Amino acid sequence: MLTLPSAPPALATKLAAGQVIAWREPITIPTYEPGEPDRYPMYLDERVYQGSSGAVYPLPFIDSIATEPVEREWDALHLENEFVRLVILPELGGRIHVGFDKVAGYDFFYRNSVIKPALVGLAGPWVSGGVEFNWPQHHRPATFLPTDSHIEWGHDDSVTVWCSDHDPFDRMKGMHGIRLRPGSALIELAARLHNRTSERHTFLWWANVAAAVHDDYQSFFPTDVHWVADHARRAITAFPTADRPYYGVDYPARPGADRLDWYRNITVPTSYMVTSTQDDFFGGYDHRAGAGFVHWADRNIAPGKKQWTWGNAPFGHAWDAHLTDEDGPYVELMAGVYTDNQPDFSFIAPGETKSFTQYWYPYQGIGVVHQANRDAAVHLSVEGGVARLGAAVTRRHSGVRVALRRGSEIHGEWTVDVAPGHPFTAELPFDGEAHELRLVVGVLLEWQPRLDAPTPPPAVATEPPEPSQVASSDELHLIATHLEQYRHPTRSPLPYLEEALRRDPGDARALVSLAWRSYRAGRYAEALAGVDAALARQRLYNSNPRDGEPAYLRGLVLVRLGRRGDAYASFAKSRWNAEFRHAASLEMARLDAASCRTAEALENVREALRFDADDLRARTLLVVLLRREHRWFDAAVALAESRALDPLDALLRFLDGAHPSDDPTILLDTATELAGIGELDHALALFDAVAEAEPVPGAGDVRTMALYRRAHLARLAGLDAGPDLERARRAPVDRAFPHGLDDFDALVAALEGDESDARAHSLLGCLLYGAGRRSEALRHWLRALELGDENPVTLRNAALATVVTTGDAESGIDLYERALAVAPTDARLWFESDQLLARAGATPAARLARVPLAALSRDDLAIEYAGLLVDVDRATEAVALLESRPFQPWEGGEGRAIAAWERACVASGQESRASHPPASLGEVRGEPTTPTAVRADGSVDYFATSLPERLLFPGVGR
User: Boundaries of each DUF5107 domain copy (predicted)?
Assistant: First the structure.
C-alpha cells in the first residue's frame, strides 16, 4: 500500500478546524521507468487507436518499459478536508492518483501502489488507477507528460489544484482544476478547454475513473438505462441483463452470470456506454466494504457514462499484472463531456473556451444508488415484502425529515441527522411494488422508482457507402465532415470531397473543406485557389454571403503568404458573419499590433472581447496594447483579472514577470505568440531560452526548431538570421520533430535562404510526411542525403518514404543497409528492415542470417525471429528464445507472443507445453473476439479495432 505523508503541522491545525488544506510534497513510489523514446519519427497514421486515429507524430514513441522498479520521487499536490483526501500527480498528466474516503477508510478511486506503465497509451506508456483526464482524444496524448500546476485559495475558503498543458498535436490548452470545499465530501472538477489557435479543431473529454473491484463490486447506471453500446456503436445489448452475445460472450446462455453491472460476470475486455438516460449520475459500489462513489454532471453537456474492464479471466488478469504489482483488478467508470461514445468528437472554434464541471463524491452504507444529485444519493428497492431505503449526503444536515410515501399516505417517516459517513438507512414491510413508493429526503432529493415501458433497441452504426454510391452531394459532405471530425483512422474524407467536386466543380462546401486541408498541410497557393473558387460560387448571386468562413480562411492563407493588407480586408469581410466576428477581430488586432497601429488594435481586440471575454489570446493582447499606450494601471487591472481567470496561462505569466512554464514547447508557443503581435525583443529572448532548455522526456526536442523560428523572425524583422541558422545546424537533432505551420514556414524560409541546408531538408521532410505530403518529404530526405547527411534517422526516413510512395522495396532495403552501416546496433533499424525484406519476399533463411542476436532486445523482432527459426526447422531454439526473456504486449497487438510460443512448441514436438506458456510471455490465451480488420478482398473493415500490419509499410504486401 502506498503510504501518504501527513499534513505539515500548520496545515494540520487548519484541517482540524474544518478548513480545506493543500500543499506540495513529493512522494516516493516504486516506478517502472519507460524506455528511451524512439529517435525515429513514428507516424502511425493508419493505426487504429480507441476507434480513431492512432497517429502519434510529433510525439516520440516509447515501446518498452523497465522490467524492474526503482524508487522514484514524484511531484505531488495534496488536497484534503475533513472527509476526503486527494493526491494529484502533475508529472503524469495532472491525474488524481489517490481518492480516499477518510470517514470509511476506503479508497473510492483505485489506488495503485506502483507506477507501472504498460504499452496502452497513444505514445506508449500508460498507467492505471485514480482518475485520468482524457483530452483532446482518448487516451490523453500527454498522459505520461508533465503539466504546469498551481494551488488556488478561493475567497469562499475552497481550494483548487490546477493543472494545465498544451496538447501535443494542435497546441490547444487544456486545464482542469480539482476543488474541495470546507464541510463537503463533494469533489469538483472545473475544466477549461481553450482553443488558442486560429483554426477550428475537434476534441473529446472523458474522465477515466478507476475503481478497484472483486466479485462483490457492482457498477450502477440510472434506472432508465436499458441499452448500452460498444465503441462507435458497433454493437448494442440490453442493460443490466445482456439479451444477446456481446464481445463474443453469449450472455443469455449463462443464467445467473448475464448481468453486466457485476465485474465478476465479464470475462473478456469489454466496453459499454449508455445510449440514453434522463439522469445525471452513475457510479460504483463495493458491497464488501459498504462504500462506493457517485459521479454527477449535467447530462445536457456531460452525457457520457461508460464502463470498461480487462475482464475477469486469465487474459484480463495478465493485463492487470502488467499494470500493477499487487493491486487490481479494476474497472474504469468513465464520464464523458460533449460526448456519449468513443470515438465521439466535438468541434471547438478558433479562440473558443469550453468550461464545464463534473463532480464525484464517496458514499457509504446504502447500496447501489437509484437517484442522485450533488447533495444526496438515495436507494429505494422492494424485495421479498421488504422496502429498503437509504440516503447518503455530501455535507452535514440536522433534523432532516425523511418520508416514504405511498400515494398520499405516509408509509414511514423519520427526522434524522445525516452527514458524510453517517447515512440514513431503514427497512420496513411493504406489500407492493417499488414504483408505488416515493422517497423524500427533506429538500435535498425526491425519488420515485420508474415504471418504464420497454424501449426498442437503438440502431447500430453503419459503414458509409463508397463515394460513387452516395446519393447526394449533401450526404457526401456530411460523410466527409464526419470522417474529419472523428479522426477516422482508415477512411479518408478526400474521396467524398473529390466526388462532390466531380459532380459539381463549384461546390462551395467541398472547396472550403479541401482548402482547409491544403492550408493545414502548408499548400498555401492551393488553399487560396480553392477558397477563391468557393467565394466565387457564394457570390454568384450575392456579393455578401452569409457564411464568413471562406473569407476568414482566405485571411489566414494570405497572412502565411505575406499579403497582410489583403488578409486584413478578408478578415474584415468575414466578421460580417457573427460566427467569425470574434476570431476575425482578433486576427485583425494582431495584424494591427504587429504593424504598430496600437489604437486600431485596441478597437479590434475590444471587439473580439465583446464577443468572447474568455479568449486568453485577446486578453493578453489587451494587456500588451495598454502597456504600449503607457496605461499602466489599466494594464495591471486587465492582467490581474485575466490571471484570476487562468493562473497557468504561459503568456499571462510572462507578462506578469513570472516564469511562463517548465515545458519548452509551451515556451516556444509563447515566443511565437509574442512574435505574432510585434513583441520582437521578447520573442527573440524566449526563442533563445527554448534553445537552451532541457527537453521534457517523452515530449520531443524543440531546441533546433526554436532556432529556425528565431532565424525566420529575425529575417522578417530585417535582422541577420545567419547566426541563428548556424546554431540550428549544430543543435541536437534526435527527436527534433517539427510540426505545424510555424515550423513549416521557418524551414521553408531557411531553404529559400540556403538550399544547401541539409538539416533543414531533413527536418522539413519529417514535417511534410506527418502532414501527408509523402512524395515531397521523400524529395527533401533524398536531397539531405545528397548534401552529405548520413544520420541514420534521415536514411531510415528516406527508406520508409521510398517504399510507401514508390513501392520500390529494393531501394528501401538499400537505404536501410546504409543506415545500419552507420548504426549497426540499432534494433529498430534491424526490425524495420526485416519487415521490409519479408514483404519483399526474402526467404526465412536469408532474413535469419542477417539479424544479430543483440537486436533481439526488441519484443517484436524477437517474436519474428522465433518464427523464422521455426521456418528453418530450428524450433527448439525458438522455444528457448521465447523462454529467455520477458515480453511486454501492447494493447491491440495481443496474442503474438502466445502464437509464436504455440507454433514453436508444436514444431519442436512439445505439443503438451503449447497450452502452458511461461508467465514471462506476458500473455495468456483467451484474447477478445474483435472484428476482422482486413476482409478477404483486402479492404479494411470500417470498424476495425486494430490494424498492426499497416503501421509501417501500408500498401506493401507480403
Answer: 55-362
Element (H, E) at 236: strand 236-238
Burial class for 346, CB neighbours closer than 10 Å (0-12, 13-18, 19+): middle
Residue 240 preceded by cis peptide, ω within 30: yes
Q: Please determine, looking at this structure, whether the domain spanning 9-364 carries the CATH number 3.30.2110.10.
A: no
pTM of the model: 0.96
Supply the pLDDT for residue 958. 30
Three cell numbers written together for 223: 434506472
C-alpha cell at 876: 527448439
Three cell numbers written together for 837: 525484406
* Max Cα distance, the chain (Å): 91
- Averaged pLDDT for residues 9-32: 97
User: What digits encode the pLDDT tens for the residues 255-280?
Assistant: 999 999 999 999 999 999 999 999 99
What integer pLDDT is reported at residue 956 of this predicted model?
43
Which residues, in sequence order, are bridge partners of residue 336?
206, 304
Contact status, residue 227 vs residue 275, Cβ threshold 8 Å? yes
Report in angstroms the alpha-carbon separations of 905 from 557, 870, 915: 61, 9, 9
Alpha helices by DSSP H, 30-163: none
For the chain, domain boundaries:
9-364, 378-447
With b for 16 or more beta-carbon neighbours within 10 A and e for fewer, the 23-52 pattern comes to beeebebebbbbbebbbbbbbbbbbbbbbb
Q: How many angstroms separate the Cα of 216 from the Cα of each of 108, 219, 264, 326, 390?
A: 14, 10, 8, 19, 19
The residue written with cell numbers 505531488 in the block is: 76
Please spell the DSSP secondary structure of 514-574, one letter per residue: HHHHHHHTT-HHHHHHHHHHHHHHHTSS-SS-S--HHHHHHHHHHHHTT-HHHHHHHHHHH
Q: Which residues pair with 616 in a beta bridge?
A: none
Secondary structure of residue 103 in the 3-state scheme: coil
Out of 542-546, 547-551, 632-636, 638-642, least confident range = 542-546
How far is residue 882's CA from residue 61's CA, in Å, rounded to a whole number? 25
Neighbours of 252 (CB within 10 A): 15
CA distance 864 to 877: 13
- The contacts of residue 125 (CB under 8 Å, 6+ apart) are 34, 62, 65, 117, 118, 119, 143, 144, 698
* Confidence band of 957 (pLDDT split at 50, 70, 90): very low
pLDDT in tens, 115-124: 999 999 999 9
**What pLDDT was estimated at residue 740?**
97
